[in-house]
Amino acid sequence: MIDVVIQGTALHGGAKEWEELTSPKGVSRPLPGVIRLHDVRQSDGVLERAHQLSLDSAVLNPPRSWKEFRVLAMDMDSTLITIECIDQLADIAGVGTQVANITTAAMRGELDFQQALRARVRLLAGLDVSALATVYDERLRLSPGATTLLAAARRAGLKTVLVSGGFTYFTRRLQERLQLDSELANSLEVIDGKLTGEVEGAIVDAHAKARRVAEVCRDLGCPTDAAIVVGDGANDLEMMAIAGLSIAYRAKPRVQSRAHVAINHSGLDSIVHLLD
Fold first, then answer.
1. Type and span of the H or E element at 17
2. Is 275 helix (H, G, I), strand (E, B) or coil?
3. Distance spanning both ends of the chain, measured CA to CA
4. Hey, how many other C-beta atoms are within 10 angstroms of the C-beta on 270?
């Protein structure tokens, strides 16, 4: 039994066109901009049509339910939030282009994440610590649908975890603001009110992210396939690989190709509509 969920603001018309295309057993429209095709026998035509219309599509084989999951783990930069915090800090420091180029290559998996992070942080040496507050207060925005997704996860009893290769200054504030259960990120070294260009302690890389997801699941007494993991970069692939449902949110092509579901046009709340 296969369900296909089609989502996006470009979704117009009723169920009839999809019935004719797929001959599914049933069609439902739970909300505007969302259509679920039940018991689809052949999904290729549906996916091609959705792509042509700039809609997100997800093949659920079998259909998934909130009851299957205990954990929602999310990346921060360009996933839970719309920006890359380090790129914004670099912009304030006047080294935006250099840092953004390294960030892009690292998220595509072209550079070792630890080396890339250290190289970017070194370029921030001497930046006044007040720049962190400037980014958080003036530039940081939640991704569309973030609060809806988190509220649904809490109602379903899931533990919510923010797992980031970014910085604790931002993850800890988001944890408090959004009532997340836990967070993991890197700590910037600060001396005399200035960033030193160094990271304190071990780098939170792909291995550390996956390890934290596994630890949360172990503490709950459940397997890692009871986790939903949402990310966008190459350093998210390891934690996505151990998840029961991996979601690439507006992600790099390499990440989309290895995720169960890719979301490119809808908000994070579209994840809610994938689950019964």
1. helix 16-22
2. strand
3. 14
4. 24
Q: Which residue of the set 3, 39, 44, 77 is catalytic?
A: 77
> Which tokens belong to 25?
């057993």
> What is residue 129's DSSP assignment?
T
Q: Which residues contact 138 (CB under 8 A, 6 or more apart)?
A: none
Is residue 56 part of the annotated active site? The answer reads no
How far apart are the C-alpha atoms of 38 and 162, rounded to whole Å?
33
Q: What is the pLDDT of residue 14?
A: 56
Q: What strands lie across the sheet with 26-28, from one edge to the other?
A: 26-28, 34-38, 3-7, 56-60
Does the active-site annotation cover 75?
Answer: yes
- Cis status, amide bond into 62, omega within 30 of 0: yes
pTM of the predicted model as reported, rounded to 2 decimal places: 0.93
Q: Which of 56, 75, 87, 236 is catalytic?
A: 75
Stretches where the chain sits below pLDDT 70 are: 12-25
CATH superfamily of the 68-274 domain: HAD superfamily/HAD-like (3.40.50.1000)
Per-residue pLDDT tens digits for 148-185: 999 999 999 999 999 999 999 999 999 999 999 999 99
119-142 pLDDT tens trace:
999 999 999 999 999 999 999 999
DSSP, residue by residue, 51-116: HHTT-EEEEESS-B-GGG-SEEEE-IIIIIBSS-HHHHHHHHHT-HHHHHHHHHHHHTTSS-HHHH
